[in-house]
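re the bet — no i am not wrong, look at it urself. input seq straight from the record:
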Amino acid sequence: MLRSMATLLVPRARKSPENATVPRSLGDTRLSVPVDLPATLGCDAVGVPARYGFRILSRLPAKGCVYADGDWWWWLVPAGSDLDLTWPLPACYAPGALVPDRAPRLIHHPDGGSPYTPPIPLYLLVCQLTGTAPAWGAPPQVRSTL
């Protein structure tokens, strides 16, 4: 009994400047498009927390390049896929496919000749999974000169 109490009372190391863990500042990395796929429309990326990754991947009718790390999954979309769209939280839109450097790796190579995931089906799925109503930008007002 005395021995088991002694093991419970063993002091733990205190946090001090000498043994404190300093959070490493993450830089950014640009997702690279495989050389066999032309990215003529430029590249942006849409990221979602990993908990949504498999559900989105399995439900998309067309899939482009998909990258993942331990926390996020990223889909390549054509540049400007955020125009007139408000991507719902917790999704993250990354212009130029510049994402936090957590060593994302390519986990899905498209079967077709395009690196892109169509942004509208991806947007609608992200809205559905996050319980957010799609928010479309208002169309510009056109006035006739006739």
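see?? Confidence is low (pLDDT under 50) at residues 1-24. told u. also Residues 66 and 75 are 5 Å apart (CA to CA). so pay up
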